[in-house]
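Example (one chain per record):
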Amino acid sequence: VFRAGKLKGSPEIVRVAAGRDRGLLFGMGRLLRELSLDHHQTYSKPLSRICCLPSRFDIVSCPAYQMRMHQVAYRPKTNAYDAFTVDMMKQEVLDLALFGTNGIEVIPPGIDDADQSPNFSVPWLTMLAEVSGWCDELDLNVSIWYPAFQSDYDDPATLDEAEGQWAVVFSTLKRLDMLFVPGGDPGGRHPAEFFKVVEKQSRFVRSMHRSCKVWVSSQFGLSVSVDLGLAEPWIPLELEHAWFEQLALPEVQQFVDGAVYG
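Predicted structure:
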């Protein structure tokens, strides 16, 4: 929540007030969006540039949506963000915040991407650390998209490998507010197996970021999963119903905070 308006008796002064740093950031963004840039010129005077606000500028704003997040994926597949320098990425995050974004979602290495892009200006983990630290400075939430990509988490060697990767990635992030585990793309595990893996991930991430929330999605629409080697097709609607049944279980509700669906 923020308030931005001209001071009574001093219309050339604008005050932005909020209870938190992020509220001030959103208020400044709204002020910038309300400003109009123009110019004035006469034959006798040089060009002058002017910046104007409506005469009755007084706004009190409360967010209509609690979550307003944007994924900024520093990864080889994008052929866009992967060419950003750290300064460019920070500017991207700041620009999004000035338009009301209150959270940034990042993507870890070691999933279904190459480990390196010819466009990378800095290593992948370095950029994750920079984005997380910058978001923390701006008081923006940080989410990480982290699918259950390993083939068999019941295998001790596979679980050790996964936990080693989690430790490296999660320790890189100064701030982490949300772990998002998609059920598909890549995915396609049976719902009961999927939530068993999510429980392992949630327990591990909260050992490092205690207040981290855990969100999940279903995403069974592809009917197969080449990434996980699940060659046997499934009927999407059947697994979708089973997924929601699992989600509603009290023991699942103990470690899952929300569901992404749409």
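Caption: DSSP finds seven helices and eleven strands in the chain.
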